[in-house]
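Changelog-adjacent note: as of this version, every example in the card shows the full chain rather than a window. The one below runs 186 residues end to end.
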Amino acid sequence: MALKIYTKTGDDGTTGLFGGDRVPKDHSRIEVYGTLDELNSLIGLALTQNMPQRLTSALLDVSSLLFTAGADLATPLAPPPTYPIPRIAEAHTAYLERLIDEYDAELSPLKAFILPTGTPASASLHLARTVCRRAERGVTALARRENIGEEIGKFINRLSDYLFTAARMANHLANVPDTEWKNPSL
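Full-length structure tokens:
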């Protein structure tokens, strides 16, 4: 028998964390992993924007890692869960750093701020980056109130760096130059 998509358990304005605790749907932990879900959807949208094939595989990896990050945040560290939960690890952050370094080796050095424009793929990745920054602010606030471990914050920070670099790479692979910011004289 297939599981139903609705459970009715959230009709009272609460939702369940992995481990069984119920919290209000506007709890900061729910807000953060909800923002990661939004970010993941934006990455999915970006992948429909004629994304260069070279970036597609990494972005699908990132999308999967965002599910890991969501599970990590949905599972408090204490008390420890009684079943294995995937957690964001140092290796995941290092993976993003390797991708950033790989792309940076091909990109021209940044000499000015750039506008979030170019190809639809690039602009979509810039939009995803801004949502990632919002998630990072949420992770930072949550970490001040609860022990969520150290790696999730590092990963989300590096992910926004990756999305910025991937947006530049999408333009580069399409032979579209980055547009430098200039203070307009009005």
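Structural remarks: The longest helix spans residues 120-145.
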